[in-house]
């Protein structure tokens, strides 16, 4: 794909980076309204680069893959805000018409999500240092407020840096992947593998919400309903 | 927690910087619970401060409350409400709703519940003070996850097929859709039975797609 056709320029790069910072904030710091979910961040990324539907598709796939990683207790989970944004934007940027670029976007989103998770751990260690002087914090409440606000600002900077660092490589990887796979057999195999991956993610994710095994007929019933909609409504 | 409670603590201990400093010190340690239910603890602790509860009882209360708040919140929000809203939005997109409207559908439905829970929790905490624990036994906190669990499974099956179809549309799939759907359902059931092992397969399969392409290209010279 010619790089000149990619609709990324300085203005929307800056918007993406600022938005990446805000989306990273949403996951833990503030306001936790779930704009950091890949479904939303992916759609926003796609919309900013001209194709909201492409961003939604990537976001929805990442969402199913993330269902198995809820933020229970001290568990580690992917940082999906900047990850979904970059993934959605990268797929939309290259025209959203190739399996290769779809797979590249999903891989980019998944990888950035886990890199983001590591950065969250590092940021938390930084917060511990920021709030280490307990006597001073208790004696001066305004100092406590200042430190908390600084921690929140650092979280936004973390998200912005993640987005800034990965948006261009992700788009370039997507552009390179537009003509992949080179063989028709590869297309069929890749599509089948991706659908199977979706099914595995959905099945495993289902156990997060359902502790027992007795719910499996509902999973099948939902699939049959889906097949009926695909077969008769589409 | 001290940062969250600071506006209330400033009012409660207005004009007494020593008591304010002591109160901030009491609430400074980590309070790991659920973010949407932490307001319940903040309300209850602020009430206890207002009523002059002893530091020891406040400390015991903090320790006793955080675990149950986390458990209730995880089950109600992370395991039930959020996936139900997300999967509804994906299903809406799958049957043809505009992606921006579908995304908005998730944000609106989820946040109606989210903000409602936050307001309810803070009010209960402020009203009940150190006796707020009984609010965690309210029936709806158990009933909602129980009602949503089957809905989530139904939506998961539906969304997998609808999203799968969207993926196949990208490649203008001409193969036998029914056969692939049957394999997908089988894999979903295996993953449902053994989620820890097979959950990783989802990510692994996506990673292996480019490798499979590379292998095919090499085989074809």
What does this structure look like?
The complex is a heterodimer of chains A (234) and B (221). By secondary structure, chain A is mainly alpha-helical. Chain A has helices spanning 10-28, 38-48, 52-66, 80-93, 99-130, 134-139, 141-177, 184-209, 216-233. Chain A folds into two domains: 3-180, no CATH class; 187-234, no CATH class. The model of chain A has no long low-confidence stretch (mean pLDDT 93). In chain B, 44% of the residues are buried. Chain B is elongated and about 80 Å long. Chain B has helices at 2-12, 17-26, 38-50, 55-94, 99-128, 139-170, 177-193, 195-219. Chain B folds into two domains: 2-174, no CATH class; 177-221. Chain B contains eight helices and no strands. Chain B is mainly alpha-helical and 221 residues long. The chains are: A mainly alpha (234), B mainly alpha (221). The interface between A and B is large, with 97 and 94 residues.
Overall tally of domains of chain A: 2
Question: For the terminal residues of chain A, how far apart are their CA atoms?
Answer: 31 Å
| Radius of gyration of chain A using CA atoms only | 20 Å
Q: Please tell me what the overall shape of chain A is.
A: globular
- Give the tally of structural domains of chain B: 2
The gyration radius over C-alpha positions of chain B equals 25 Å
Most residues in contact, chain pair and counts = A-B, 97 and 94 residues
H-E string of chain A: HHHHHHHHH
Oligomer type: heterodimer
Helicity level of chain B: over 70%
The average pLDDT of chain A is 93
Largest sheet of chain B: none
The amount of beta strand of chain B, in percent, is: under 5%
> What is the end-to-end distance of chain B?
63 Å
Number of strands of chain A: 0
The ordered string of helix (H) and strand (E) elements of chain B is HHHHHHHH
- How many strands, which pairing sense, and closed or not: the largest β-sheet of chain A? none
Secondary-structure-based class of chain B equals: mainly alpha
**Percent of residues in β-strands of chain A:** under 5%
Q: Considering DSSP H and I runs of 4 or more, what fraction of the residues of chain A is helical?
A: over 70%
Shape of chain B: elongated
